[in-house]
Amino acid sequence: MIILLADGSNAILLSGAPGSYARYPKWMHTFENQLSLDFRTKQSNALLLYTDDGGIQGNFFSLTITNKKLQLDFRITIIK
């Protein structure tokens, strides 16, 4: 799998071996964030992206390929 980051300058190549992943520093969330990914794979099932709040509110989002379809799952808790 090849993943290109938002600016296109830093590409990573993952071998597809079980447990292969890339980890990045904590992303500082703001009111309006934007994330852009370009990817290419032959896998019909894969985890592409996952992030969570460390269990504080149970917030997370994950981007997966499931049965050859892109799937986004998320939970966002709004504190009033």
UniProtKB/TrEMBL annotation:
Q: Which part of the chain is the Laminin G domain?
A: 11-80
Which SUPFAM superfamilies does the entry mention?
Concanavalin A-like lectins/glucanases
Q: Per its UniProt record, what Gene3D superfamilies does this chain match?
A: 2.60.120.200
What superkingdom does the record give? Eukaryota
Q: Mind telling me what this protein is named?
A: Laminin G domain-containing protein
